[in-house]
Amino acid sequence: MPIVGTLQSRETGTGALNRIGPMLSLQEIHKRFGARVLLSGLDLDVADGELIAIVGESGAGKSTLLNLIAGLDSVDAGRIVLAGQDLGELDDEQRTRLRRSHIGFVFQAFHVLPHLTVAQNVLLPLVLLGVQAEQPDVAAARVAAMLAAVDLGHRAQAATSELSGGELQRVALARALVHKPRLVLADEPTGNLDPDSARAALDLLAAAARREGAAGIIVTHSPPAAAACDRTLRLAHGRLLDSRLVAS
Question: Would the pLDDT of 158 be above 80?
Fold first, then answer.
């Protein structure tokens, strides 16, 4: 099954996705590790341009859920449909291609590459998609714009070993957004940021989602981060519940 709707085709209007329905749909998702049930009949629909916060106790399965959505792990039962593609119908190579073109992932542990500069880390998604080889000026401009957006333009040529935790988090955020993904997944994206930087990072995520029509899911323990999202859902007993209903 071909993966359509790459970064280049989205911008030129060719090969666009013929999709009806939400950007992301999770249907009756089940996942267990050994005897431990993490997800049990979980459902979720996320619309274009919508930013959702997922909260819950440590160990509830929030990071596992993000990995399933990204195709980094497989469900035991149920369907995950991203941008019209059922992940269960794709092989490993096809899931990798879909992830590269449609998903931006902000990992809690950053996962920056220490042998690359700040700019080279942010450039990496555009290298993997072939944009750097085919349109080097476009790639360079995109990287410069993202570094400016996270206030790291002056650190473009710095080694990542020279950066603070907060700066590394901003590099990870810029890398996740540079290829204009259809879905952004962020695992505690403000956990290493001071309040002002955290607010700026959330504003950037929200602006990118609305500007590009992308969806965003943030796993967080931060009430301000959750409050900045369109919806807050609580993961408990293997399912997602409206946090407002849980609180009441």
Answer: yes
